[in-house]
Hints:
2 copies of one chain form a homodimer. By secondary structure, chain A is mainly α.
Amino acid sequence: xxxxxxxxxxxxxxxxxxxxxxxxxxxxxxxxxxxxxxxxxxxxxxxxxxxxxxxxxxxxxxxxxxxxxxxxxxxxxxxxxxxxxxxxxxxxxxxxxxxxxxxxxxxxxxxxxxxxxxxxxxxxxxxxxxxxxxxxxxxxxxxx
Amino acid sequence: xxxxxxxxxxxxxxxxxxxxxxxxxxxxxxxxxxxxxxxxxxxxxxxxxxxxxxxxxxxxxxxxxxxxxxxxxxxxxxxxxxxxxxxxxxxxxxxxxxxxxxxxxxxxxxxxxxxxxxxxxxxxxxxxxxxxxxxxxxxxxxxx
DNA sequence: ATAAAGTACTTGCAAAATGCAAGTACTTTT
DNA sequence: AAAAGTACTTGCATTTTGCAAGTACTTTAT
Lengths: 144, 144
C-alpha cells in the first residue's frame, strides 16, 4: 500500500491525489458514503462491485490515514464500527460529481445511477447541497 | 488490463469510470496533454513521475480504446507519433480541475503546480477556457 | 447458560499488475 | 555506413489483487 510518509513520486498535485485515490476501489467506498448513506463495513461489502474483505479493510485504513474518513464505535453495538466522511472527505463531492457527469455523458452502459443523476443534470448545485445536508443530519444524530 | 468488452463489475457510473481511469498513471498522461502541451511518447516519459515504458504503452493503448485520446503519425517524422485528446477526453477537464482544487487545498506538500493553480483559484472558468483554446490551436496546426 | 449467528477483520495462496533493465525494429541524423 | 532517436516489446523479480478460509470478539436465540 502507498505509504503517505514515503517521499512522493513528484510534487505534482495530480500524482499526489492519485497516490491516495488512484485505484479501482477507494472512490467506491467514498461513493457509498456520499450517495447511499452507508456507514458500516458490512454495508460496503454489500455493494454490487463485491469488494473483497481484505481490500476493503486496507482501503478503509488508507482513507482514515489520509484523513478522508474517520471511524467510531457503533453506539449500540460493540462489535460494529461507524465510518463517516471528514470535512476533507466531504470536499471530494465536486470531483465525484464531475466524474459522474463525464461517465453519464460518455459511458452509455451505466444505468443504475441514472435517476440519481437526472437530478444532477437539472441542478448540480442543489443536488450537492442536499447530499451535504443529509450528511450533516447523520452527524447530528451520531456525533457528539 | 481491464477489457472494455468484458461485462462491467456493476452498472454504476463510478465503477465504470474507475475501470478506465482508476489507477496511478492514466490521469497523469491526461494531465500532460491538458496542462503541459505534451503530445509524444518521449514527452510523457520525461515527466517527473518516471513512468515505465511498458506501462506508458499499455495506458496509451487503453486511452485510445476508451476514446479519450487519439493518435496520428508525426507529420515530419515517420518514427514518431502524436497523441491528442478527443472531445471525450477534453470533457475530463472539469473533473481534473476539481481534483486539483481538492489536492491544492488538502495536500500541502504539492508545490510544482502552485503557480498554475493560483490562476485556477482566481478564475477557474477562465482557466478552463484558456486550456481548451490552447488545445484548439494545436489542433488547427496539426489536424487536417 | 450455551449455542448459533453476526461483525470486522486477518491469513494464505494463486493470479495479475507493476517496475526495472534490456532488447528490437524502424527511421533519421551524422 | 554508422550512430542516434523513437516507440515500443520482452523477461523477470516484486508487489498488489482476488478469493477462500479462518479468527476473535460481540450479540442474539434457545
